[in-house]
Amino acid sequence: MDRRAFLRIGAAGAGLIAAGPVLAACGSSSSAGSSAASGDIAYQLSWIKNFQFAGEYIADDKGYYRDAGLTVDLLAGGPNVAVDAVAESGKALVTQSSPDFTANAVGAGADLKIIGASYQKSPFSIISMATPITSPADLAGKTIGIQAVNQTAWDAFLRLNEIDSSTFTQVPVQHDLTPLISGEVDGFWGYSNDDAVQLREKGNAITIMLLADHGYLLPTGTYTVRSDSLTDPDKRARVIAFMKADIRGWQDAIADPAAGAKLAVEVYGKDNGLDLSAQTASCVASNDLMVTPDTTANGLFTMTPDLIAQSVRTLGAGGITASETLFDMSILDEIYADGPTVS
Q1: Which end of the chain has fewer CB atoms surrounding its CB within 10 Å, N or C?
Q2: How far apart are CA 221 and CA 119, in angstroms?
Q3: What is the DSSP letter of 129?
């Protein structure tokens, strides 16, 4: 099941996304005799269990969490799970979110910090078919389909590129790609590692304009914790242990995309109707969002001061108030003190 199909289910699928521990047989590390300084933690995922969490599946399957002294519950997410609220409540030690959601939560009184980003580039894209759209200038005279949920980010992109919305026609769409395939729209808001993959898997020739290549500089798949998890010695030790194990899992997932996809389809997301070929292709596409010259130099999930500043600027273009204090890279600085790899 892809993102669009899942969203169409709506409330009928709420049972699939209840935030709770996964079954021990398929998604929860077990570690008999874990030290008192370590122990049980929960990691709240931002979406249903699919390719997006391949590194976590590998870290669990290969025992990297166990080796770190942790028993980790991977809590399924979805459209009805407010991941930042889960972080603030303390029900999960670490959650995966995005800077816009976290900044809004902090603005409403939450005490949260972003400690790293899996996707250094946002997968947000304008996907086109018959008439290729490769740059913001190509939007002129086109009909573009935008979902209501993405309007704030789209408006930020337009402001960052100084594009007058009167130069193109915007129409409302849902997550069904039919308007693009039928030619009703020239461009369609989608994900480079999901919607674009689904289209190509079905034999469609497409062009992708990645918003991140044109000024929309906002990482996503961000790791979020309560601020006190950075100051409380026991909580901080657990966050460090988790992040080290998670990095190991993602190093393996990036090196072997098929391995994470297989675990997604056959074990962790086996009830979500996933297709192995598409999930593998999505894992490959995700690598392009995760591995950059900066992460090669500094380590996975790291955010440079420049990227943090650009993120704050992008948030501001969308009308979201944030400052660089939203981000705290001290955990990753400690982990990568000896270099950009973890073993």
Answers
A1: C
A2: 6
A3: S
Question: What single DSSP character describes residue 265?
Answer: I
pLDDT tens, residue by residue, 320-339: 999 999 999 999 999 999 99
3-state helix, strand, coil in the chain (%, to 5): 50, 15, 35
146, 169 in Cβ contact below 8 A?
no
Residues 6 or more apart in contact with residue 310 via CB below 8 angstroms: 217, 218
pTM of structure? 0.88
Contacts of 117 (CB under 8 A, 6+ apart): 219, 220, 221, 222, 223, 301, 303
The DSSP symbol for 28 reads: B
- Alpha helix positions (H), the chain: 3-9, 54-61, 64-67, 83-89, 99-107, 151-160, 178-181, 195-201, 228-231, 233-255, 257-263, 276-290, 293-298, 305-317, 330-335
Query: Does residue 2 surpass a pLDDT of 80?
Result: no
- In terms of DSSP bridges, do strands 187-191 and 124-128 run parallel, antiparallel, or are they unpaired? antiparallel
Q: Is the dihedral of CA 104, 301, 22, 240 positive or negative?
A: negative
Q: Is the separation of the CB atoms in 60 and 269 below 8 Å?
A: no
Q: Which two tokens stand for residue 16?
A: 């699939």
Alpha carbons 125 and 153: distance in angstroms, whole number = 11
| Cα distances (angstroms) measured from residue 335 to each of 92, 94, 250 | 21, 16, 15
| 75 closest CA partner among 58, 55, 56, 62 | 56
Measured distance CA(72)–CA(40) in Å, rounded = 6
Nearest to 44 by CA among 105, 14, 89: 89
Helix (H) or strand (E) holding 210: strand 207-210
Give the pLDDT confidence of 81-133 residue by residue, as tens digits.
999 999 999 999 999 999 999 999 999 999 999 999 999 999 999 999 999 99
